[in-house]
Amino acid sequence: MTVAAPSVVVFGSLHYDIIVKGPHRPRKGETVTGSAWYPKCGGKGGNQAVSAAKYGVKSAMIGAVAEDSFGHALKVNLDAHGVDIRSVRTVSGEGSGMSVAIFDADGDYGAVIVSGSNLALSEEDVSTAAELFRSDAVLVLQNEVPDAANVLAAQAMKKAGGRVVLNAAPARLPSADLVALVDVVVVNAVEAEALAEVPEVNSLDRLWSPPAFWAAIIPRPLLPRAVMVWLLSRMAAMRPRSLRSRSNSSVPTAPATSSSARLQQNWRGARRWSGR
After folding, report:
1. Between the CA of residue 188 and those of 38, 73, 94, 170, 227, what are the distances in Å?
2. Which residues, other chains included, contact 230 with Cβ-Cβ below 8 Å and sequence gap of 6+?
3. Cα–Cα–Cα angle for 157, 159, 165, nearest 5°?
4. pLDDT digits over 223-276, tens only?
5. 44-54 vs 69-80: helix axis angle to the nearest 10?
6. N or C: which end of the chain has fewer CB atoms below 10 A?
7. Cβ neighbours of residue 69 under 8 Å, at least 6 residues apart?
8. 200 burial via Cβ count (<10 Å: 0-12, 13-18, 19+)
């Protein structure tokens, strides 16, 4: 029997990115002559909504942009990729979220992000998008919008019977109220190191050596059902409620060029480990 893929609702950030390439990143007071620049529609929320749509998953975005050219471009980009943008609100008095990233010749970069309209996400946005919160839906959150707004969206999805995934990036300790509503937490190795306060995460066992962040700051009944950590080319997963590591049974990561079938296989494995 074929099981239909759940719809994905992304609540979060939209940034218009300016990418600059140069020989090196400027030091304090230095002006560097670059070789190229180009715009890119991003924000972790926008990227996630587009990625889901590219894999054929019904995708909707709940976000906020401003009445400017950046906001217009962000909405056009989402719409062009098949993302439902009816819940992307246009706000006044703020500029759209944006960033400037400088890449050097080695591919390393530094960036400055201005959140702008993303900080306007509120209960109004959750209420307006009420029809998107359903039992067959998955809500995806990130840390580029206020924690309080994430809590409101997560509460709405849990009330409807759906699942909640938190991509805890950039690294920021989530509130206990948010963690209590999250089914799956996704971080990369760098974010896991920052949150767990360990020097290097190369297996999930390291996350449960004191002072591991979930075990240290959240009561065990409130732990998420699963934590996933992207470790270079592989994804490791565990069930923190039982404190049983699954790092010895890692699920291969789906690279950008992988098939939709591989991505769906990874999701099924993650859902099985989360107990859902």
Report:
1. 26, 29, 31, 10, 11
2. 186, 187, 188, 189, 253
3. 30
4. 555 566 655 445 555 555 444 444 333 333 334 333 334 334 444 443 443 334
5. 20
6. N
7. none
8. exposed
